[in-house]
UniProtKB/TrEMBL annotation:
Its EC number is 5.4.99.-. CDD domains: PseudoU_synth_RluB, S4. PANTHER family: PSEUDOURIDINE SYNTHASE FAMILY PROTEIN-RELATED, RIBOSOMAL LARGE SUBUNIT PSEUDOURIDINE SYNTHASE B. Residues 256-316 are annotated as: Disordered. Belongs to the pseudouridine synthase RsuA family. Pfam families: PseudoU_synth_2, S4. Responsible for synthesis of pseudouridine from uracil-2605 in 23S ribosomal RNA. Residues 294-304 have a biased composition (Polar residues). Keywords: Isomerase, RNA-binding. It catalyses: uridine(2605) in 23S rRNA = pseudouridine(2605) in 23S rRNA. This is Pseudouridine synthase.
Length: 316
């Protein structure tokens, strides 16, 4: 069985089909040592390289489509590696044999909630692409009063530095005083978009939790820092929402299925800790030590101890 080259490259997670067509047209892709052409088909036994580097791939019918949902805690970054050695969302994901997890969208270090991971790069690209208008739903705690005028502004659209943005829906869901919770929906995944829409109205977001991405809702039984694998029905619904066909072999089997069923009956405890929490604890401890230290010790900091940013943290 053969497949079109750009489709295979997109599914591996190297970019969208259109971008892969540009890469192929630039002469950066080779099949069995020969420069490839856009639209060329590739066999499972062919050797595929981009910029001279070998790319491992499988044809579509051989790959079981998989999707994980992960409850991101505060303090983890959405990257595979971090020069500052902070924890990442990939640290606690299960290994996947002869494949890799592709992250669908991002959340900033201070945000929490639903993240999707899949081994299907084409699915990931379609879920993230603005043209598909996949809804992202958030629970947001805001400091300040959201007046009817401000609400209308954010629903009609505000101007940000990278273009206009708006909420598709906006509703109040609780809270009291100056801290109130709202549920909002956007159809794009621009950097810090939800926070920036509120900031455009001189309001500050103090908590942000993603509760839904497309057809996938953050389940009540999933605790912070834990992951769960989706079964066939949920994966097929997600794929269908971006016009992808179901794939044979999709779904949970054996131990994986029993693990998910067990988690629904008895959820795992939240994974406590986190970089930001540990940093705050370290800062509080330093401040307490400083208060207990007698003044006039003659150091160059006027009795103050410099607090380092990259302190070690403990994983739980």
């Amino acid at each position: 069985m053969s497949e079109k080259l750009q489709k295979v490259l997109a599914r591996v997670g190297l970019g969208s089909r259109r971008y892969m067509e540009e890469v192929i047209a630039a002469g950066r892709v080779s099949i069995n040592g020969k420069i490839a052409q856009v639209g060329e088909r590739i066999e499972p036994t062919d050797e595929l390289r981009i910029d001279g580097r070998k790319v491992q791939f499988q044809v579509e019918d051989e790959i079981r489509r998989r999707v994980l949902i992960y409850y991101k805690p505060e303090g983890e970054i959405c990257s595979r590696n971090d020069p500052e050695k902070r924890p990442t969302v990939f640290d606690h994901l299960p290994q996947i044999a002869n494949d890799r997890w592709v992250m669908v969208g991002r959340l900033d270090i201070n945000s929490t909630g639903l993240l999707l991971f899949t081994n299907d790069g084409e699915l990931a690209n379609r879920l993230m692409h603005p043209s598909n208008e996949v809804e992202r739903e958030y629970a947001v705690r805001v400091m300040g009063e959201v007046t009817p005028q401000i609400r209308n502004n954010m629903l009609k659209g505000v101007e940000l530095e990278d273009g206009p943005a708006k909420f598709e829906s906006f509703s109040e869901i609780g809270g009291e005083g100056i801290n109130r919770w709202y549920q909002v929906v956007v159809k794009e995944g621009r950097n810090r978009e939800v926070r920036r829409i509120f900031e455009s109205q001189s309001l500050k977001v103090s908590r942000l939790l993603r509760t839904r991405y497309g057809t996938v809702i953050l389940p009540r039984e999933l605790r912070t820092g834990r992951w769960m694998e989706l079964d066939k029905t949920d994966i097929d619904n997600l794929a269908k929402s971006v016009e992808l066909k179901p794939r044979q072999g999709t779904g949970l089997f054996g131990m994986a299925k029993r693990r998910t069923e067990k988690m629904a009956e008895k959820p795992l405890a939240a994974r406590r800790g986190g970089y930001l929490r540990q940093q705050r604890r370290d800062d509080e401890q330093d401040q307490q030590q400083q208060q207990q230290r007698p003044s006039g010790n003659g150091n160059n900091n006027n009795g103050r101890k410099t607090i380092g940013f990259n302190k070690g943290f403990k994983k739980f």
